[in-house]
Amino acid sequence: MKKNFILPLAVSVAVMLILPWLVVTFVKDDAGMAVCFLLFFVINPVYFIIIGAFAERDIKHLWSLLVISAILFLTSTWIFFDIGEIAFILYMVIYLVLGIASMLISIFIRKKTHR
């Protein structure tokens, strides 16, 4: 179980903490804004969908990956962009909903195909 948890946790840290830091540190001006849009509207939602589908394999132990990833997202945005910004809480909730929905859809598909 630890092996199934540590690798996705490391990927979550990379996607939710290191990518925003790289954007803020190395991408300047308008290009930085474009990369932030990619991060918020493409990379993060797709990541939460993938991690939700992955968590379906062992919901009892892996459901917390969604919550940890959401907390990492909120932490990184408040550190690197604007602390206390309420919009980032909304993004976090939307990402959580996407992850939970993908987990539930994966459960539904698995039950339908294993009959």
General description of the model:
- The protein has 115 residues and is mainly α.
- Helix content is 88%, strand content 0%.
- It contains 5 helices and no strands.
- The longest helix has 28 residues, at 86-113.
- The model has no long low-confidence stretch (mean pLDDT 88).
Number of helical elements: 5
Question: How is the quaternary structure best described?
Answer: single chain
Q: Tell me the radius of gyration.
A: 15 Å
Indicate the proportion of strand residues: under 5%
Total number of beta strands: 0
Low-pLDDT stretches: none
Query: Pairing-aware structural class of the strands and helices?
Result: mainly alpha
Largest sheet: none
Proportion in helices: over 70%
Gap between N and C termini: 26 Å
Order of helices and strands: HHHHH
Cα shape: elongated
Give the mean pLDDT: 88
Any chance you could write out the topology, listing elements then pairs?
Elements: H1 2-26, H2 29-55, H3 59-62, H4 64-80, H5 86-113
Helix pairs in contact: 1-2, 1-4, 2-4, 2-5, 4-5
Outline of the structure:
The chain is mainly α.
What would the keywords be for this entry?
about 120 residues; 5 helices
